[in-house]
Amino acid sequence: MEMEMVVKPAWLEGLMAETFFGVHDNLRKKEKNIICFPCCLSICPHCIPSHRSHPLLQVRRYAYHNVVRLGNVEKLIDCSYIQPYTINGVKVIFLNERPQTRSSCKLGSATANNICLTCERILHDPFHFCSLSCKTSTS
Question: For the chain, where are the alpha helices, taking DSSP H only?
């Protein structure tokens, strides 16, 4: 398989390093779950008006991990070969590498035919990466 080099946009490092779901002051619905690309910081829904002209991306939680909607992030970066998951009828991808489960760590098993090229997590065919960070760390 021939893979193209992934050019990392400036905002990508900020997205991967940012801590999401912290609280912002004493406001209702205050979770910081939106990233502002030009500012490279997470914001809460109350902060959107002051970033209205900036491109924004909502980060969601699934099983204690940060995910983004595939339809939103693939407009910004090539997400081919990243294994998507369907959550509530929407395809999402994980932002960061996911820890291995004990049963999936046995790479000698018959189910380990296809693994993440970065972290060796077991994947479905035809995917090569378990998360956006695994794909972009190979470049």
Answer: 10-17, 70-73, 132-136
Q: Which residues contact 40 (CB under 8 A, 6 or more apart)?
A: 11, 14, 15, 18
Distance CA 56, CA 60 (A): 13
63 Cβ contact list (under 8 Å, min separation 6): none
Instruction: Output the furthest CA–CA distance in the chain (Å, rounded).
Output: 53
What is the reported pTM? 0.80
80-120: per-residue pLDDT in tens?
A: 999 999 999 999 999 999 877 655 555 444 456 799 999 99
* Tokens 């801590």 -> residue: 19
| First-to-final CA distance of the chain | 15
H-run or E-run covering 135 = helix 132-136
Query: What are the phi and psi torsion angles at 80 (to 5°)?
Result: -65, 145
Token digits of residue 37: 């690309």
| CA nearest neighbour of 127 among 93, 87, 76, 102 | 93
State the Cα–Cα distance between residues 22 and 33, nearest whole angstrom: 8
Residue 121, helix vs strand vs coil: coil
